[in-house]
Amino acid sequence: MRPLASILKNIPPTKIIDSTIAYSKYIPLDLSINNQILTGNKPGNSAYFEEYITNHLKKNNGEVAFGGYIEGRTLYQRSAIFKNDLIPERNIHIGMDLWVKAETPVLAALDGKIHSFKNNIGLGDYGPTIILEHEIENQKFYTLYGHLSLESIEGISVGDFFKKGEYLANIGNSDVNGDYAPHLHFQIIKNIADHWGDYPGVCNTKDLNFYIENCPDPNLLLKIT
């Protein structure tokens, strides 16, 4: 059986947001602790952060800011779901973020069916989320789409089938997406265990090797760069 990473590499590039936006308009965005502009400010504040991303895109003549896989970030410190007295701090992002305007269409990455969906309410959480189940070469795996609009999880059912590139959802705004600037969190998951409508998108250092193995780099599939 071929490793999933090898399978993903051989799949033609796929877009998961508005297919009319060319990859030449995708601009890398560094949100790590090395970003000196954000250090000492409050990137967790959605209004400030949205202004920062908008200016970043204008400066670089872009429409989508992307990045974040295995990126250590400070922006999660504002939320107790990532750091409290009972759990080690989680600050390493294990998906890819695509920062773009609210209501931008979200597309299915591959042929697949809805595994689960849920509104993950709370500061710093996903908000409305859809998980698709896929099977290629007898291997099941999953793709997660987080920070969607509320309408995106209305009128859908577990088992609904979507073709690659078919409209799936829309990007949510800060009122519903966990209080972030609008973006899509996209993640590939090999073994989803008993998670339903949710899966960790941020981990701590101790668990990083597990998540690197279980959540391959989304760019293997998207091929943005």
From TrEMBL:
Classification via InterPro entries: Cell_wall_metabolism_enzyme, Dup_hybrid_motif, M23ase_b-sheet_dom
Pfam family, one: Peptidase_M23
Keyword Cytoplasm assigned: no
Keyword vocabulary terms for this entry: Signal
PANTHER family in the cross-refs: L-ALA--D-GLU ENDOPEPTIDASE, PEPTIDASE-RELATED
Cell membrane as UniProt keyword: no
Domain M23ase beta-sheet core: 92-191
Originating organism: Flavobacterium cheongpyeongense
Gene Ontology molecular function: metalloendopeptidase activity
Name this protein carries in UniProt: Peptidase M23
